[in-house]
Amino acid sequence: MSGNGTLDGLTGETVTLRVLKGTPGSTPVEATYEVPGVTGMVVLDAVHYVQHNLDTDLACRWNCKAAKCGSCSAEVNGRPVLLCKTRVDDLPAGPITVHPLKTFPLIKDLVTDVSRNYEVNKEIPPFTAAPDDGSPWRIQQVDIDRLYEHRRCIECFLCQDVCHIMRTHNYADRFYGPRFFVRVASLEMHPKDVLDRTELTRDKGGLGYCNITKCCTEVCPEHIHITDNAIIPMKERVADRHWDPLRFLGRLMWRR
Q: pLDDT tens digits for 49-91?
């Protein structure tokens, strides 16, 4: 499909989209569209066809169409995905439902307000190195590999959407969510960072609410092992630093 909504490589089949449309304060309505099938079509292609040819009022956020900007997050057949990475021919036969991310406030149609995520991001102290003593930094490859995995995050916020703490229990006001536990982990595990963010992660971040369901890892388009390589290590650090009896005694002696 070209950028103007015209089609190349028609398959002769028809794709049925059921898109949830609505605005804040209105009752969302699922609109049905019939889109000509195209070889290699992704759901974002079908949405673009609708916007250009059937419903110019349909709102959808997107940018790169290369699965790297994280903009086109939505729920397809009930699963949080990137629209530009979800091929139509990989989905079960039948109508394809496209809904906005459930966890975040609705702006219009498939566009949601994810600004809360950026407010959380501001609460996390940035990378802070020890004072420069003039010596070169030497970092082991295992640390580089660990940090590289964390830095692959494209902030699509699919992990935030699927997390039941935020999605079902509505604890967004007291729970940072998987994406930001990954960010904290990337800082805490950096061998040259000197800050301790475990108290922030435990208290304001609400790390204790997470019960390790691994649903966030399952939807990550960058295949980051969010639970195993970020959340669990942060839980271990919090436990070591705040509930280890020897550390507790050490803090009491230091205060004296």
A: 999 999 999 999 999 999 999 999 999 999 999 999 999 999 9
Pick the CATH number of 10-112 from 3.90.226.10, 1.20.272.10, 3.10.20.30, 3.20.20.140: 3.10.20.30
CA distance 156 to 153: 8
Give the pLDDT confidence score for residue 35 in this predicted structure: 97
In the block, residue with structure tokens 């930094």: 137
Q: What's the token pair of residue 228?
A: 């195993």
What is the SS3 assignment for 239? Answer: helix
Indicate the burial class of 115 (C-beta count within 10 angstroms; 0-12, 13-18, 19 or more). Answer: exposed
Fold agreement between 10-112 and 115-255: no
Dihedral-angle region of residue 78 (phi above 0 means left; psi in -120 to 50 means alpha; beta otherwise)? left
Q: Where are the domains of the chain?
A: 10-112, 115-255
CATH number of 115-255: 1.10.1060.10
- Residue burial 31-64, b: 16+ Cβ < 10 Å; e: rest: bebebbbbeebbbbbbbbbbebeeeeebebbbee
Reported as a single tens digit per residue, the pLDDT across 213-250 is: 999 999 999 999 999 999 999 999 998 877 666 666 66
Q: What is the pLDDT of residues 184-224, one digit of tens each?
A: 999 999 999 999 999 999 999 999 999 999 999 999 999 99
